């Protein structure tokens, strides 16, 4: 079941929370033992993580985010799983903060942190930071590192960066962004690296467990999370247009007249067309991943995450709504044209 359908289980979950859960606790997935430098870091029980399966929208850019997931777990839970092997927990945060980011200027300013791309894709840059004190992290060539993956269409994904440190990285991205949004969207995810896995990967509630995590795996995960949080923004834009046309139709039903100006109608036409173009071209939802094409393990991760985030069904829903908008636009254009003809 995809994370975007989890809201349908809200009532069942509420009832479950009110009853004892001895059997459920025995079936919870195993998580990471916290590192000594970060005893309070972890993530909560999957039961409680159902509450935040939809990306949160922040109220402003002042750093006060509506956090989608709690990264803390009781120490006793970690200790009870010590005998099951070594785990590494890596928090992942996806943000959609603007309609465009100048990757070239950002790369020039942060050239010492840029990771050379592994494919011909030019819609993102990846930055690696290893000069921060870490308590958790990805082991890249023996060093704990933090990663920031920035996409041209306006998403930024922070890999292995705690909530209280995220704002400084987002400020760096904003310096090169245009069309900053009044409401920034945020979504949380997690990666668990577990060398003891008998399979390459397995998924859980808002996390994915991998036998081994490297830079290509980070690229694949960040790509899907960046697309998902941006798609959520465009779905919201189209929903607003659908609501506007619904109000227009209700008004026509009551009054039998139509008072929209041509300029307003043309603005709606432009907005509908640009939203569809942004989703298809900028987000690259249907572009082939060269990393996944060359390695079946990464293809497995990509397929799982696309299904988990329901990218195809959500795009289908958006496309259906845009067709409704397009139908209404054509109808209203005819109405305006007939009015103009009557005046002549």
Q: What can you tell me about this protein's structure?
A:
Belongs to the RMD1/sif2 family. It comes from Vanilla planifolia. One of its GO terms (cellular component) is mitochondrion. This is DUF155 domain-containing protein. Residues 148-319 form the DUF155 domain. The protein is of the alpha+beta class. The chain has a domain at 232-343. Helices cover 45% and strands 19% of the residues. The chain is built from eleven helices and nine strands. The chain has helices at 10-17, 22-26, 46-49, 75-79, 103-109, 163-174, 215-255, 262-282, 290-294, 296-308, 311-343, and strands spanning 56-57, 88-101, 124-129, 138-140, 143-151, 155-159, 177-193, 201-204, 207-210. Strands 1, 2, 3, 4, 5, 6, 7, 8 and 9 form a nine-stranded mixed β-sheet that branches. Strand 5 (143-151) and strand 6 form a beta hairpin. Helix 7 (215-255) packs parallel to helix 10. The chain is elongated, with a radius of gyration of 23 Å.
